[in-house]
Structure formats: C-alpha cells, structure tokens
Write a structure and sequence with these properties.
Elements (H helix, E strand, L loop, with lengths): L8 H7 L8 E5 L4 E3 H17 L7 E5 L4 H13 L2 E4 L6 H11 L3 E4 L4 H10 L4 E4 L7 H6 L16 E8 L5 E7 H14 L7 E4 L6 H13 L3 E4 L5 H7 L5 E4 L1 H8 L14 E4 L6 H11 L4 E6 L3 E5 L16 E2 L4 E5 L12 E6 L11 H6 L7 E9 L5 E6 L4 E3 L2 E3 L1 H9 L4 E11 L3 E10 L7 H9 L10 E5 L12 H8 L5
Helix pairs in contact: 2-3, 4-5, 7-8, 10-11
Length: 511
C-alpha cells in the first residue's frame, strides 16, 4: 500500500481499495451489493454535502442511526471531509441524547426519521444548525440532499494529531466523557492489527457488530477496508444466517454473547468453518467454557484481545503459532508499539502474577477527554501513561489477564454499564431513599445489572415498577434485569455500601 503525505485516515483507507473498483466491497443480508466504486462515489457525495454546509474546522457530526451501509458511508464521508465523527448508541433515549448534544455541540446531527420529532428540538436548542435523517432502507433527507452533490471529492488534508472521532464513555460519577481519537490513533492501530492478525489478500469479513462502538466501527471496519477485503454485512446478529454464510468468509469478530448464541446453532459445524482462519472475541470477558466448547466444536481457537474506547486495541493473543499459543482467560500480549505495565497503589511496578492497575502508552492512546482538561490530567501519570481503570496481572510468559475493574463497571453483552448512572436515575424516583446497582453473572450476556433499593419511610415501592420507569429513560442494555426492595444496604464502618457482599448474595440469580 503506497503511503500518502495526507494523514487523513480516509486517504489511507482509499489507497487500500483494490485496483478493480467494480469488485464487490460489501454484500448485505438483504441482497444488496456495493462495489468499491460505489463506496468511493457515495462517500464523496456525502462529503461534498458536508463541505457545502461551510462548517467550522473540527466541527462534530453526531450520528444516531440504525446500522446500514449508508451509515458506514456517512462515517467515511466525515473522515474524508475532515470533520469529527461522533457515533451514538441507537438505544440512547432523550435524557442521554440531550446531554451528548449539549456537551459536544455538534454542527450536524443525523438521526432516524422515527426519532426526528424529539431529536431535532434537542439539537436546535443546543445550537445545532443542521439536522438530517437517515434510515436503514436507504431513505432520509441526508441521502436526498447528497444525491445532487458531485461524486468527486478530494480528501481534506489532515495531520496525524487532528481529531477524527469522539466516543463517549461514562465514568463512575455517571457523567459521560468524550474520548478524543485522532487520525493517527486510528490509523496506527489499524496498521498494527493488519499485520498482527495476518490480514491477507482474499480475506472476507463477516460484520455482525454495531457500528457505534470501537469493535464494529474501528477494529472490524478498518481491518477490512485497509486490506481491501470484502465485507458480508449483517444489520442485526442472526446466528442461523451467519452460520450459513461462514463458508464464504475467513474472518469473524464478535462479543462473547455472539459466540454463545452461535454455539446454540446446529448449523455451526466444522464443515461450515472450513474456510475460516480467524475468530476474534472482545468487548467483554469470554468464559473459559465458551472458549473450550468453541475449540472442540469447530477446531478453531478464539483469539481474545483487549481494548478501550480511549485506546482502541491494546493487547492480543497471538495469531501466528510461532508467537505462542492462544490462552483462554487471557488477553495475550501488548501489541507492537504499545507499552503496558501493571502498578500497585503506590505506583510501583508489580512483580510476576501480582495484581495491580493497568497503565498504557502508545500511538493509539487518545488525545484526552473532550472539554475536560482536569479529568484528562487526572487519568494520566506524570510520565504519560494512561490509567485504564482495569485491574490485571502479567504472568511469567508475558500473558496479560484482566482480573477485574476498579470502578464497578458492568459489561453486559459487550456494552459498558456504569452503576452510578443507573443509581442516579433510581434515586430520583418518588419514594426511593437509596439504591445500589451491581453486576452478576449471566449465561447469555456475561453480566447483567441487579438493583437493590431502599424505600423512604412510609413509602411503598415495587421492583417491577422501578424497572419499568427506567425503561422509559435509558437504553435497554443499561436496565437492571431485576430490582429488589430491601430495608437496608450492607455497609462498612465508614458507611460505604459493600457492593461485593451484594454481588455475592445475588451471583446465583441467573445461574
């Protein structure tokens, strides 16, 4: 792949398109086919639309739409035009969207036609000048306007340090933080993974992940595009249809939940995976039972890796046998260019197998949190390492194991759920004195939230009603699966709620 002086990520992706632009680039689950020429022309038209809006340098393009190839084209067009892409989970509701739009102050908001009636007023109130719609059936005002734009566009010239995307990630305070990722962050990580995971000519990717998340938007898409590889596109995860497509593919990426569901599919056989070379798992811990069952059933060993919104990918189990074995329950080694260390509470390096806080440095590590300089400073060490908030250890062979999270984070079906945010909404409800949300094991989602609530004196609460009220306010993946009303919460001598005891009490709830 020839290098370009322009550090714009799109320029690198475009340079990797195959010579035959009429070859199929994306084949969808509803029978559509897009050539590489289609991707080039359509992204140019949307980029020209954005340019015609005369946006300020560094303008944010906030996007909350269903998964579609056109949504991917909007991402590519945003990079191409030199603006900053801000993907938002499709499950977010009004209170969440109002915060993100107010905080990021996007110049453009793109939403579904179904949500436009409530998204547009929120955007207008926050000063957003342009609101477009985009639906998963190739309709919406964005495409209507772009249809009259030129299909030729010269990518904006960007430096490696220019912002390419902002991904919101919450903290234990419940206040969401926008992780600022540069063109250099994204391209350096994509190039490392291209080599480390052995992307090669003829590879075909099954893409069944959301594209508002690091795994689907950056790791999977950049991997295929930077290799000029065909994508088999699934708008939703459907284990039966995916199993049927496995013989046509070579690479699959999924969260542990997807592997569990595929294992329940009779069509998952050794014959079906005969052409596959790589199965990647991440975004949540993979149970060793799933790891072992997959290997026994398919003959393939899942490659587990570890990353974050702030860093993209940090570590990976080996792809090539000469690098070592893929070890279940570990996330492998630090990727080339990534420095990773484990330190104790006093800032001293941990010894072999000693548990401590994971800190990282490298070209993939984000530029900081959007408009939060103090928080950014707080999360970096004096010598420039990012404190991930994850707790882990490194064994004698260099394999890294994540053993917990320092901030009570729940990872449910690959999505981060922050208890403090949920507790904040519960505590605002009538009759609630206090609440605690903890994560417990779940056979399908890995972990789910359980809420334990204390009623105010004289008030009567119903657990199902608490859950129902939350469903009207928050994304479905954040909703606790159960809510218990109790007279008191366990506390230590300092009055702090002992969540470890609550987790232990409810750990068998879904066993």
């Amino acid at each position: 792949m020839k290098k370009t002086a322009n550090a714009n990520l799109f320029a690198a992706l475009r340079a990797a398109f195959p010579a035959d632009l009429d070859a199929i680039a994306v084949e969808t689950d509803n029978g559509l086919a897009y050539s590489w020429r289609d991707l080039d022309r359509a992204s140019a038209m949307i980029a020209n639309l954005l340019d015609a809006l005369k946006l300020e340098k560094g303008a944010r393009i906030a996007v909350q739409v269903e998964k579609s190839v056109e949504a991917m084209l909007l991402y590519l067009a945003t990079l191409r035009a030199g603006y900053v892409f801000l993907p938002l989970n499709t499950a977010y509701q009004s209170a969440e969207i109002e915060y993100f739009i107010g905080n990021a102050e996007p110049a453009v908001v793109v939403c579904t036609s179904r949500n436009a009636a409530w998204v547009a007023p929120l955007a207008t109130a926050a000063g957003t000048r342009h609101v477009f719609t985009l639906d998963d059936d190739r309709s919406g005002t964005l495409l209507e306007v772009a249809a009259s734009c030129s299909d030729v566009h010269k990518p904006a010239t960007k430096s490696a340090d220019d912002l390419a995307a902002i991904l919101y990630t919450s903290g234990t305070t419940g206040r969401s933080k926008g992780a600022m990722l540069t063109h250099g962050n994204l391209l350096s990580n994509a190039e490392v993974l291209k080599d480390y995971w052995g992307w090669t000519e003829g590879d075909v990717l099954i893409h069944a992940l959301p594209i508002f998340h690091v795994h689907g938007l950056f790791v999977a898409l950049h991997g295929a595009l930077l290799n000029g590889s065909k994508i088999l596109w699934f708008s939703k995860f459907d284990p039966k249809r995916i199993a049927a497509k496995l013989p046509e593919a070579t690479v699959f990426m999924g969260v542990p939940t997807l592997y569990v569901r595929l294992l329940a599919e009779p069509g998952l056989t050794r014959e079906a995976v005969r052409n596959m070379r790589l199965f990647v798992a991440g975004s949540a811990p993979l149970l060793i039972e799933t790891f072992d069952e997959w290997r026994e059933r398919t003959g393939h060993t899942i490659l587990e890796r570890y990353g974050m919104s702030e860093t993209i990918m940090l570590t990976s189990n080996p792809y090539r046998p000469e690098q070592g074995e893929r070890r279940g329950g570990t996330v492998g080694f630090a990727l080339p260019g990534v420095q990773l260390r484990v330190r104790d509470d006093q800032g001293r390096d941990c010894t072999i197998d000693e548990i401590g806080g994971i800190e990282v440095s490298g070209p993939n590590v984000f530029a900081g949190y959007w408009r939060m300089p103090e928080k950014t400073k707080e999360e970096f060490t004096a010598d420039g390492f990012f404190k991930t908030g994850d707790v882990g250890k490194i064994d004698g062979r260099g394999y890294i194991t994540i053993v917990g999270r320092s901030k009570d984070l729940i990872i449910s079906g690959g999505y981060n759920v922050y208890p403090a945010e949920i507790e904040g909404y519960i505590n605002e409800m009538a009759g609630v004195a206090e609440s605690a949300v903890v994560g417990v094991p779940h056979p399908d989602f890995g972990e789910v939230g359980v809420a334990i609530v204390i009623a105010k004196p004289g008030a009567t609460l119903d657990g199902d009603a608490v859950v129902a009220e939350l469903k009207a306010k928050l994304a479905n993946f954040k909703i606790p699966k159960r809510c218990f009303i109790v007279p008191e919460l366990p506390r230590n001598t300092m009055g702090k709620v002992q969540k470890a005891l609550l987790r232990g009490e409810h750990k068998g709830l879904f066993a």
